[in-house]
Amino acid sequence: MFSTPLRYTACLTENIERSPWETLAVSRGYGADDDVITCAMVESPRLCYDDVSEDPERLLTGIADSMAAMSSWNMHVRSDMVVAMSPEQATICARAGLKRDDVHRRLIELARRQVGDLKRGGNWRRERALKINIDPDDDSAWVPVIKDVRDLHLIVAGGWGPLTAVCHGWGGGSRAVHGKYTTA
């Protein structure tokens, strides 16, 4: 059976020094000086390479397309997703006046597929559509990748470069947890 090393260990830190926005922790209500960890069970990253886009809408459309992978669990069930934008790509959005919440909201709006498209392959099952309040007989109905706004964990991470990492939810229903920690 295939799996992912992320099932056991992986750690990704936000690039606070080069991020144009507040951290994920601050966006979740923690203080800027709090030490916070988020644990999320996700698949290995899919890299969205885009060294062409200078416009946020074009950039976010490409990232949202990777989020809406036909075979991902996120298309069919509520599951967490981590989107880690490089400082370069986050800066494209920030220079256009977009805040972190704006990018978060726009990715959720763009990341979707139609029922008719999903029926052609991947992990489609009629009973799954019913569980997420989608009419499985309406081929033009849109299925959102993110079923609840709290399930998209948008961070700025990594170094300079035209990449965003999209990490789909694992196992059909993973739930992320956040919490403060202290070091001795």
The residue ranges in which pLDDT falls below 50 over 5 or more consecutive positions are: none
The count of domains is 1
Task: Kindly report the average pLDDT value.
Answer: 92
- Intertermini distance: 40 Å
Helix/strand order, N-terminal first: HEEHEHHEHHEEEE
Note the main attributes of this structure:
globular, single chain, two-stranded antiparallel ribbon, 184 residues, alpha+beta
Structural summary, described in words:
The protein is built from 6 helices and 8 strands, in the order αββαβααβααββββ. The protein has 184 residues and is α+β, with helices and mostly antiparallel strands. The chain has one domain. A 4-stranded mixed β-sheet has the order 2-7-3-6. α2 crosses α4. The longest helix has 12 residues, at 56-67. The N and C termini lie far apart (40 Å).
